[in-house]
Design goal:
The chain has helices spanning about 10-20, 35-45, 60-70, 85-95, 110-120, 125-130, 140-150, 155-165, 170-180, 185-195; strands at about 1-5, 25-35, 50-55, 75-80, 100-105, 125. It has about 200 residues and is of the alpha/beta class. The chain folds into 2 domains: about 1-135, Rossmann fold; about 140-195, Winged helix-like DNA-binding domain superfamily/Winged helix DNA-binding domain (Arc Repressor Mutant, subunit A, Orthogonal Bundle), CATH 1.10.10.10. It has a 6-stranded parallel beta sheet, sandwiched between helices. Helix 3 (about 60-70) links the parallel strand 3 and strand 4. Helix 2 packs parallel to helix 3 (about 60-70), helix 8 (about 155-165) crosses helix 9 (about 170-180) and helix 9 packs across helix 10. The protein is elongated and about 55 Å long. InterPro entries: CheY-like_superfamily, Sig_transdc_resp-reg_C-effctor, Sig_transdc_resp-reg_receiver, Tscrpt_reg_LuxR_C, WalR-like. Keywords: DNA-binding, Phosphoprotein. GO terms for molecular function: DNA binding.
Length: about 200
């Protein structure tokens, strides 16, 4: 049996995924989480074969969970299932060790097959995204991304500096670089453009 943990913040979707996967003879749903922190805790404690997770969730995103599992040296393989058909998200998912990336409108059988493929050591990427994933490079550094993400939430330069333990001048430099790279008029537009492209 392939042991699976599901992470999805929409109750109906979580229930539907669990019910569909439970119909498969070789798949067993051993845990369900409604947010990223619970997903990380379950994946660490239950040590399933595969974690199927959404990207946008409370507490931690699916990408954050995948990154932390990778940092822990976990053997849990991660499959992202999302509505975001953006190459930037796929690239980030692969960079943090995800082995699968599917869209929520894919047939249920495709998810079951992807779990089997990933469990066997392969990759399972939505075909409509696979080719375009490498077309547009993310120009932002990790620090620029962190600073821009906080700016998107409305944090001031001083607040970002305190949170990230940087000087205000350094934060301004990162924001300026990000705004320039994204050819935006200001931090709000830069954050919006980065978000649209899957870089935040």
């Amino acid at each position: 049996m392939i042991r699976v943990v599901l992470a999805e913040d929409q109750g109906l979707v979580l229930g539907a995924l669990s019910a569909l996967l439970s119909l498969e003879d070789d798949l067993e749903v051993v845990g369900q989480a409604a947010d990223g922190a619970a997903a990380l805790e379950l994946a660490t404690r239950l040590n399933p074969d595969v974690l199927v997770t959404d990207i946008e969730m409370p507490a931690l995103s699916g990408l954050d969970v995948a990154a932390r599992l990778q940092a822990q040296g976990s053997r849990v393989r991660v499959v992202i299932v999302t509505t975001f058909a953006r190459p930037g998200y796929l690239r980030r998912a692969l960079e943090v060790g995800a082995r699968g990336y599917l869209l929520k409108d894919a047939p249920a059988q495709q998810l079951a097959d992807a779990i089997r493929q990933v469990h066997a050591g392969g990759r399972a990427i939505a075909p409509e995204l696979a080719a375009s994933a490498w077309d547009v490079q993310n120009p932002l550094t990790e620090r620029e991304r962190q600073v821009l993400a906080q700016a998107e939430l409305g944090a001031s330069t001083a607040q970002i500096a305190r949170l990230l333990q940087l000087s205000e001048g350094t934060v301004r430099n990162y924001l300026s670089e990000a705004i320039s790279k994204l050819e935006a008029a200001g931090r709000v537009e830069a954050a919006r453009r980065a978000r649209e492209r899957g870089w935040l």
